[in-house]
Design a protein that fits this description.
With about 350 residues, the chain is of the alpha+beta class. The protein contains twelve helices and 13 strands. The protein has helices spanning about 1-10, 15-20, 25-35, 85-90, 95-105, 145-155, 160-165, 210, 240-250, 265-275, 290-300, 320-340, and strands spanning about 55-60, 70-75, 80, 135-140, 165-175, 180-185, 190-195, 200, 210-215, 235-240, 255, 280, 305. The strands form three sheets. Strands 4, 5, 6, 7, 8 and 9 form a six-stranded antiparallel beta sheet that branches. The termini are far apart.
Length: about 350
Amino acid sequence: MEDILENFIKENALTMENVRSLVDDYSLFSYYIGAELDVQVKYSSPLRKGDNDPSFTLYYGYGEFSRDKLYFKDHMLNVSGDVFDFLMLLFNTNSLEKVLRQVDFDLGLNLGTGEKCDLVPTIIKEAPTVKERPKLKIVSQADTKGYINYWEGNYEIGKRVRNLYHASCLSAVHYEYSHKTTIVVPKNLCIGYTIGKYYKTYQPFESKEYKFRNDFPSNYIEGHMQIDWSRNDLLVISKAFKEDMLFRQHWDIQAVSGKSETTFIHPKFMAMYLKHFKRVVVWLDPDEAGTRSSKKYKELYPKLEIVEVPSWINEKDPTDFYEVHRNLETTAFVKSMLQL
């Protein structure tokens, strides 16, 4: 009897864990921000007025942070944390207890006494403004020694395949905003990819923050324009253009990729691929983000095959593997993973 009473008290206590058991982080953020924000997109901050250069972002945890929790970061204030950290900033209080009581009252969770704390947001709630994404224009140049060595020295990807995927060596990138144009001359190697009227740039030797830029719509698919529809044997869903090109160069395997590992290919195109190809195989990085996306793909499309890279493999993707082990070993590795 004591155990039952103890469990009842524990399950109905006003704690962060019990609040999360009744309402998810995204719903909490949305309720108090007053809008449903896209994850990993920059908005004007709800924590301060006059944010003319939107720098507030929601993102799922990575590294030492829980992958199941949603976090925020205000880049201008240089503050970040989970939803309860956000609410303490929003209500200008250091009391987690008061925040929990306010949430319990506002959402009618019936976990505590039901008393309202009368906490008031520190700023007037306004609709968040999304950060303007610039249009990209690229300026190509003749292939430099560094560019050729990057492709041919590291991956033995030749000019034919580079041309097929509209890869080029860049001397400058134009970022066109509604009120200005910024021209950037890369300090290091900069690679451009073209899909129709849109562009992606890749700077392999820059930090992660500056490595990739693109103005692709979210439903664009890298490698789709290069599909040979006279073939229906195999299609690989990889993580990026570079993998698509490696597969085509060395094993004549067709591959496509979404805008990122966490941006799923549109259902219309997935239905097209699953109908046309005998096998559609997902091969993403074996890290947390890649594993989570692979699992989601399988849930959405049970007919998909998922590559599970053994834990003893140090290289995270086929291009990294090729760079270390070269053609012979990589060919055996790819054939094993794809069961060819």
